Amino acid sequence: MRNLTKTGSKINSKIGKAIHDYKLINEGDRILIAVSGGKDSITLLHFLKNIQSWAPVKFDLSAIHIQTDLSCGGRVHKDFLSKMFENLDIGCTVKNIKVLDEKGKTSCFWCAWNRRKTIFKFAEETKCNKIALGHHKDDIAETILMNLLYKGEISAMNPRQELFDGKLTIVRPLCYVEEDMIIKFAKENGFREQLFKCPYGKTSQRKYIKDFIRETEQKLPGVNIKTNIFNGPMRIKEEYINLKMEK
What we know:
By secondary structure, this protein is α/β, with parallel strands linked by helices. It has one domain: 3-Layer(aba) Sandwich (Rossmann fold). It is about 45% helix and about 15% strand. The protein has helices at about 5-20, 40-55, 80-90, 110-125, 135-150, 180-190, 205-220, 225-230, and strands at about 30-35, 60-70, 90-95, 130, 160-165, 170. It has a 6-stranded mixed β-sheet with strand order 3-2-1-4-6-5, sandwiched between helices. α3 (about 80-90) links the parallel β2 (about 60-70) and β3 (about 90-95). α5 (about 135-150) crosses α8. The protein is globular, with a radius of gyration of 19 Å. About 30% of the residues are buried.
């Protein structure tokens, strides 16, 4: 990706900072990128490939694309994906899974769980020690609020999350990148035409939280809402939270 636009340069800088701050990439890593076909994962794919070409450490990249029997699974332009992987010289494996029950229904949890299970299993089979996911700053801020409001707990998507006693690590290099930047970059590079939307997305809890954050930003234009939410769990003032759990 030579001659990056202003938006591309900003994203590249934020990804580089995330990689440095959280030590997301190390010498000899075998990184499996989960590519849904949406703007986030495609943007991540392009930048990691670019970084691979000049990074002082050597690491391998491969990709996996999950197709489901849910309607959104057939909305990614397969020719577009095939050509993209060929142009980037990255091998991609396509896995087909079922997430619908006998009534043709599913849930966000069940769909996500089956996707993750398939990705984890494939990473183990191909001896990949890291999985790169396309979650960005908005996703993390939304998750923090969702967990607080719906579960009564303070937790988030970690930029780096070790699993199975360190045998596998989840990394999120887009953790400092806001969604608006990705949308702009995707439009500049012709990615937006390939997007698909989950049929459950319009009524999901995440959609509600996303709209809430957007409306709050509009009412408080001078406040960086997403950054404050992102930083909140790291700024715990214990002297002000000496509470007993209500049973």
